[in-house]
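Query structure, 184 tokens:
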């Protein structure tokens, strides 16, 4: 015997199934987020309060190299005679020692030769994330970016320069330094 609920056109079996589905989705999301720190829901983009740590511009007395997007593309791992560079937060790193990860046909090769800040923040290799733009990222992504920037890249790879966008955004940080900008 099927009980029919005329209001709305659903019967009790359909309502029970819908309710069970909603509970299952909530419970699965709760488990994944709390136990695996993975969100199965859309990215939280509203109300981010985390502020990225400022970049410290360092110079050992030598001129600081400034890269354009076009110049950085020359260091994408496709030429074995060139070093492999990638930028995060406008800082250009020499990741050549990680060639098995970043070299030609390596798993993270899409991150090199560009400023891949957003992709690093999201731990993503998606084409839309291969950019320096971090607008609309949640607090957790921004915090992850700072942690990865400091704990992995600054700790492991030498800084070889800075992106011209960083120079344009913070000219006062470069004011007392000699800079070299190579144009193609």
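Result returned for the query:
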């Amino acid at each position: 015997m099927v009980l029919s609920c005329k209001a709305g056109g659903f019967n009790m079996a359909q309502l029970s199934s819908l309710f069970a589905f909603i509970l299952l989705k909530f419970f699965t999301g709760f488990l994944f987020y709390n136990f695996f720190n993975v969100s199965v829901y859309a990215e939280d983009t509203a109300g981010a309060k985390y502020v990225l740590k400022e970049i410290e511009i360092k110079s050992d007395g030598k001129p600081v190299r400034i890269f354009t997007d076009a110049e950085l593309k020359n260091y994408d791992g496709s030429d074995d005679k060139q070093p492999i560079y990638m930028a995060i937060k406008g800082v250009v790193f020499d990741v050549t020692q990680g060639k098995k990860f970043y070299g030609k046909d390596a798993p993270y090769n899409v991150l090199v030769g560009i400023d891949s800040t957003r992709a690093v923040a999201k731990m993503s290799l998606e084409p839309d994330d291969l950019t320096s733009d971090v607008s609309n990222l949640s607090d957790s992504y921004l915090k992850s970016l700072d942690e990865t920037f400091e704990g992995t890249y600054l700790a492991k790879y030498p800084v070889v320069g800075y992106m011209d966008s960083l120079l344009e955004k913070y000219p006062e940080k470069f004011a007392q330094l000699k800079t070299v900008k190579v144009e193609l």
